[in-house]
């Protein structure tokens, strides 16, 4: 049994991966993490034979010992029962999150991606940039600060060619839903607002002129790359999904080798990587999202990403 960790609003990608796992002869179980406190039961017993962890949903009972692999797509915020007294919400969230991680930590099987590594990488963009630089990729000059003087000096040093973004920026789903703070070009009239950095540290980066933006999906050595000439905007996700026209793109072997090195350094078999191709043909790494969206590349370009995820996970299981 392969455990697929996602959330109740997830569509398309989760279905494709599960369908292909089934075709490969590997049944899977969809675990909607946001519903853990409302629609699942977790049971832990310490028996004479050792610990026993079980997850129950409706008439389905999953024993941790029967799980052979995990596809970790998303971990979502817990839904809280509407009837719960607000005074008990903090305890509800804390205890259910603890229970969930006790269960997940018990799964000593192949993962794509291991949850601890996934969270460590997604939660530290400076780690990503450092690893990318060590792997030989070009990266933008970057400042992460809560100090206005640092930010203003950085702005001046780059002659105003600077973008600003949150470290933990909210991101849209492939259909454009969800709260969002895009990467934004800093204007001269915005500079006085940098005094507010003490309330919210932010990332400032040199602005990279672009000919094309790339979304590179890396699956354990395989590459699926979409490119676009976005409208005149700093972040392609701010554009209407009806305007964006994804095109297939072939990465040079040298860039594939560097990205492979990066992913090995980070310990990630999967990631969605954002890069820019400059007008002079140079490639610049921006970030890697271990849970990044890729459904649009499968849907519009026909890339077999879901199939590759399923096949790579099965390979890990058979060679474990």
TrEMBL record:
PROSITE patterns for this protein: ATP_GRASP
Pfam families listed in its UniProt record: ATPgraspMvdD, RimK
The protein's name in its UniProt record: ATP-grasp ribosomal peptide maturase
Alphabetical keyword list: ATP-binding, Nucleotide-binding
Gene Ontology annotations of biological process type: SOS response
Domain ATP-grasp, residue spans: 129-314
Gene Ontology MF term list: ATP binding; metal ion binding; ribosomal S6-glutamic acid ligase activity
Signal peptide region: none
Keyword Nucleotide-binding: yes
Organism: Chitinophaga lutea
One CC-aspect GO term: cytoplasm
């Amino acid at each position: 049994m392969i455990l697929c960790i996602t959330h109740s609003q997830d569509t398309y990608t989760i279905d494709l991966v599960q369908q292909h796992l089934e075709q490969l002869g590997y049944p899977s179980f969809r675990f909607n993490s946001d519903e853990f406190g409302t629609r699942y039961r977790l049971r832990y017993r310490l028996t004479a034979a050792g610990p026993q962890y079980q997850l129950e949903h409706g008439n389905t009972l999953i024993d941790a010992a029967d799980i052979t692999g995990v596809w970790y797509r998303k971990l979502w915020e817990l839904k809280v029962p509407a009837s719960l007294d607000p005074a008990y919400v903090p305890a509800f969230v804390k205890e259910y999150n603890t229970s969930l991680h006790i269960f997940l930590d018990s799964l000593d099987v192949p993962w794509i991606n291991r949850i601890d590594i996934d969270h460590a990488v997604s939660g530290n963009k400076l780690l990503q940039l450092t690893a990318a630089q060590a792997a030989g990729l070009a990266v933008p000059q970057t400042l992460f600060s809560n100090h206005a003087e640092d930010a203003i000096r950085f702005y001046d040093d780059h002659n105003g060619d600077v973008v600003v973004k949150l470290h933990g920026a909210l991101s849209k789903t492939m259909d454009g839903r969800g709260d969002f703070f895009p990467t934004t070009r800093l204007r001269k009239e915005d500079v006085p607002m940098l005094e507010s950095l003490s309330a919210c540290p932010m990332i400032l980066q040199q602005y990279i002129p672009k000919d094309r933006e790339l979304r590179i999906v890396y699956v354990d050595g395989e590459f699926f790359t979409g490119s676009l000439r976005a409208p005149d905007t700093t972040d392609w996700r701010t554009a209407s999904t009806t305007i964006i026209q994804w095109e297939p793109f072939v990465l040079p072997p040298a860039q594939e080798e560097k990205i492979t090195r990066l992913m090995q350094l980070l310990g990630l078999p999967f990631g969605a990587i954002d890069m820019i191709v400059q007008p002079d043909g140079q490639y610049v790494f921006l970030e890697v999202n271990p849970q990044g969206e890729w459904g649009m590349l499968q849907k519009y370009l026909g890339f077999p990403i879901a199939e590759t995820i399923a096949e790579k996970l099965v390979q890990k299981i058979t060679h474990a």
